[in-house]
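Below sits my pick:
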Amino acid sequence: MTPTPQHPAPASTIPPQPNTTLKALQRLLDQPVQALPEHARPAKHVWHTSVRTAPGDRMLSDEEWAEVARRLVAATGIDPGDGQSGCRWAAVRHADDHIHIVATLVCEDGTRPDDFRSGKRAQAEARLIEKELGLHQVAPGDGTAAQRPTSAERHKAERQGRERTAREELREAVRRAVAGATGDEEFFDRLAAAGLLVKKRVAPSGDLLGYKVALPDDRNKDGEPVYYPGARLAPDLSLPRIRERWSMDQPESPPAPGPMAPSAARRHAAAALSDAVLVVHNGEDAVASAHISAAGEVLDALAKTSAAHTRHQLREAAMAFERASRSHIRAARGHDQALRQAARELVRGGPALGRGEDGAATAMAIDMLFFLIAAVAHWHARKGHAQQAEAAHQAAEHLRGAYRVAAEQPLAVLHQRGQNLARRLLERQAGAVRAAMPKLAEQVLAEPGWPSLAATLADAEAVGHISTDLLARVAGRRELGTAESVSDVLVWRVRRMADLPADSYPEYVTAASLQRDSAVPGTADALGAGTTNGPVRRR
């Protein structure tokens, strides 16, 4: 059940009851205001909130909704009851799952109600109501969430045909501009490139103090752009908080020669994400908090540069994780430099095509990002950060969807190659799995993804690696137990650790590797190499 307090609204928004008229209801609610001298009437005197049950909750009766409304106006101090002076209010049931409550913020005796922090008081009462009525219990907040859009902003978005409010669109755009940025100039250049209107707040000394942004087509009644300061978009998007991210970054030395290929940027990101998992599991809270925030930058950068078929799920994951990237544990900046560098490389590398090496490297990065965000969910749960843990779980589910789409084609090719491996070679790879990871071996060998892993191990051996050693290294990762398919996870870990291309074939197979495998009949043919005295390059 979610009470959503709104800014004061005109009483004329109250819909008509069956046996009355809108005007009559408005006059009735406004009588205490009209009874005051004109100079004593408050300029804004209407309080409005909506209360909604969660999807899947049972339908409440009219009597239950009436009791919910009575308890909420009492909790907020608008109509405390017990003989105390209260305000006039009305509740309207708009649909099966929600009501609207509107009140006049002048008591019957002409005084103002004690409605200080009414939103927090309404939320606290809602938590009690949920428990008593057997409804979905909303996780309590900790004050670090971004401000929700008001009803006026939502209605405006509906009128303009927008899927989201201007506040939400701006929050996403600013987060993407922050991802991997190195300073004020790059940040503001990115905002301008995104098409946003930007106003900077400058001190008399010339120092930059803050900023605010607007969408070009979001205007007020006077035709002027509606600007939002960064801090009003999210607590960590004020200019001082943004500057904390790059204040500890070390300058690149030597300077980067230019943007790397999208696939290379994704491989680098996967490596940084892998290291971050261990930090979140084992690191100090402030260091883990920095990595969690920087993980949001990597996800924002990946969503910004994703191919069309993964874009929607990655964007949804980034929006969900936004809530998980903040808590009251202040980040120790500087320790997160590898992740911030990964976000920077993703943005500078530009959009991936989603095919071949780009597509496979994207699957590799998403795979590792999923496990990092799963670790973040566990970290928040241990700290009692209920909303952040739930947000991380939601982001992880969106990443599952993005991974399935990104990995489908490269894994299908690997699967076909694995099925065509010579039996002796396949048996040898199975033996390596049993030797390196005995507890998970039978599960891995029974999974549909086993042929893909066998092909990957064959690729690794062909360029000089030992399957047992590689598997032992990747099997030591603590997060394997949460994988839907352990074999799929091992594919990407082995390919990254063995420095193999992310897609199906190594760049070349050396003659030495073919000679090493010559004792296994059919090995060379199974690798697609044939017999040769030199390297066989991929075609």
